[in-house]
Amino acid sequence: MIKSNLQRLSLASLMLASSLPTWAAGAIEGAVEKRHDLNLPAIVMFLIFVAFTLGITYWAARRTKSAKDFYAAGGGISGFQNGLAIAGDYMSAASFLGISAMVFGVGYDGLIYSIGFLVGWPLITFLIAERLRNLGKYTFADVASYRLSQTPVRIFAATGTLVVVALYLIAQMVGAGKLIQVLFGLDYTYAVILVGILMIMYVTFGGMLATTWVQIIKAILLLSGASFMAFMVMKHVGFSFETLFQQAVAVKHAGAEALALKANVAAEAAATAISSNAPNASAAVASAAAASKAAVAAAKANIMAPGGLVSNPIDAISLGMALMFGTAGLPHILMRFFTVSNAKEARKSVFYATGFIGYFYILTFIIGFGAIVLLSGEAGMKFKEVSGALIGGSNMAAIHLSDAVGGDYFLGFISAVAFATILAVVAGLTLSGASAVSHDIYASVIKKGKANEADEIRVSKLTTIALGILAMFLGIAFEQQNIAFMVGLAFSIAASANFPVLIMSMFWKDLTTRGAVTGGFVGLITALTLIILGPSVWVEVLGHEKGSEWFPYKNPTIFSMTLAFITIWLVSVLDTSKQAAEERAKFLPQFIRSMTGIGAEGATDKH
Amino acid sequence: MQDHTIERIQQNPKFQELVRKKSSLSWLLSFVMLAIYYGFILVVAFSPATLGQSLSGGVTTIGIPIGVLIILSAFVITGIYVRRANTEFDQLTREVVEDAKK
Fold first, then answer.
1. Which chain A residues contact residue B37 at CB under 8 A?
2. Comparing A59-73, A123-137, A510-524, A593-607, which segment has the lowest mean pLDDT?
3. Which candidate, A465, A534, A537, A584, places its Cα nearest to that of A201?
4. Which entry of A240, A256, A309, A552 is 20 to 30 Å from A1 by CA?
């Protein structure tokens, strides 16, 4: 009877094993433990980074006078610099720690995520970068509203921007607080406040110029740190990928066998308990069930082939769409294209960014496999709890690996880099959120384009401070919440609201204001609603029973993005107003400017 | 831009050539990238075992080089576009802009 019970349990656990959290790589979450001893090398290196970046902020502040300086670094960043800055803006701590942790845990699936995060970039190069640069000034709303009615389109674009920025920002703040707690032994609340204050200082004083340089420096530090780790991993295995994979598979096998052994012991204990009618029989059966679940999951897992992600084809495709098109709708990324002098530099910058980001993801793959190998056995004991789990949570794989390959000082370096990474990303996000409020809402909607430049900058700085404080509060409020869905939601909304409106405004002559605004909001609300009604919020956050969710998929993008495009098309073709006709007539001049750059914003030559 | 400038640019054969070449390359390469990526995702979704086959008898599966190749292809395809745009398209654009100033 026990045996058949166990078989049933194994079946159930098979199903469990195939439903890994789809957004596991999106954020640093879960309960973490505070580090007890102070990590001195990390603190020293982090202080050096902070001092250096504040120095840059001081330098940048003296050069940041006009609105163009504040939003777009005067348009004087080179393609190569911007490529690094884009990489620095995009490679968040969540993707460094999260993806290497995912590879460490499930192997190949981590690579599927990396690929999704990368393949949006070529599309940005071919379809968006230069057109955006030629048409816009500071925000993507400049482009979306180029020939449409300013007020409604700006309000939509600012909403899309702020929602994406807020979700992304909360995920980063919570991640930052937990990471710092683990790495530096600093209390969560202080950590979040520290990040908030530094981010406010970079952005309010140094604007885009300081933000850009913080991102460039962070990208260089992260790429060199990750390169060193990957090199040490490859050195350990004699520069043979086959050896690396062999050892990793062997470690996983050994782990699965140990778990199977444990499950057997538990099953025997349960059988004894039942046959002797012991009072703890049900508890013994439960623990046997848990052990068998873990053992079956481990035995079934294949780190060399796609696994949990494939539980459902619709989800896999939907996730792919969110990653690919969401990248092209992230406001803080789109904003970076206004910092270069012309279309040529814009396209060069995406080329460099694609190279850096692709290289980085190959490194995280090696780092994840290296962590499997090097954090195992005798040598790996010091990184693990008694239970066998990594100290500080599974997202710490890359951090522990840095200790294993480079000792205390390198651990300090990588910890400081992880912190710097968060700072660079939140600074970019905040600047983008602030510009949506000051440039799109204040200057274009409230002041109807007649705002005084000094006032606009003042509004922007005040918004930065307000956003910073809000981010600290949200970061603290969400400490105990499950925030794994947030980055996924941000990508889904970017793909379902911002991206369709932006791409249609650049390529489709018949787009009208009504179509853009209705379709954009439909995409935004659909994505939001379906995620809340889906398993990642309805079950995992709101705690409803598994299976009671209204919407069966974790990722709604395949539905919400399609619906947004259909709505934009339908409402636009049905729009026969006089205004619609005027908007269509303005497509030709817009098209000529987007192709040739005639009339595009120039650079100020100050840097 | 003045209306007559717009009209002149639109009728400039060089502008038409630029639009034709740039659009066809942009959409072609976008399509290639989409095909590569969604081809991969469809295999992941419907036939994951395909990627789990051994590459040459060892533990390395064919999924590994395929994944790395997709990452490289993104970079290479972007490079192809940027190279042509920086030389051929930019030259055409300069000529169109010069003509428009006359």
1. 115-116, 119, 320, 324
2. A593-607
3. A465
4. A256
Residue numbers in B near A91 (CB within 8 A): none
Instruction: Give ∠ CA B26-B32-B37 in degrees, rounded to 5.
Output: 125
Q: Which of B34, B37, B63 sits opposite A305 (nearest CB)?
A: B63
State pLDDT tens for residues B5-45.
Answer: 888 899 999 999 999 999 999 999 999 999 999 999 889 88
Distance CA B79, CA B67 (A): 19
- Tell me the residue type at A458: R
Q: How many CB atoms lie within 10 A of CB A150?
A: 16
Residue A549's H or E segment, with its range, is none
End-to-end distance of chain A based on CA atoms, in angstroms?
A: 78
Task: Flag if B63 and A307 touch (Cβ within 8 Å).
Answer: no
Shortest Cα–Cα distance, B32 to chain A (Å):
10
Once rounded to an integer, what is the mean pLDDT over residues A322-340? 94
Q: Distance (Å) from the C-alpha of residue A125 to the closest C-alpha of chain B? A: 7
Q: CA A139 to CA A378: how far, in whole Å?
A: 53
User: CB of B14 within 8 A of CB of A596?
Assistant: no
Q: What is the ipTM of this complex?
A: 0.95
pLDDT at A32: 60
Long-range contacts of A257-260 (CB under 8 A, 24+ apart): A259/A291, A259/A294, A259/A295, A259/A298, A259/A299, A260/A295, A260/A298, A260/A299
* pLDDT tens figures, A248-289: 999 988 888 888 888 888 888 888 888 887 777 788 888 888
Q: Any idea which residue has 């009072």 for tokens?
A: A279
Collect all residues of chain A within an 8 Å Cβ-Cβ radius of residue B42.
313, 317
Minimum CA–CA partner of A356 in chain B: B75
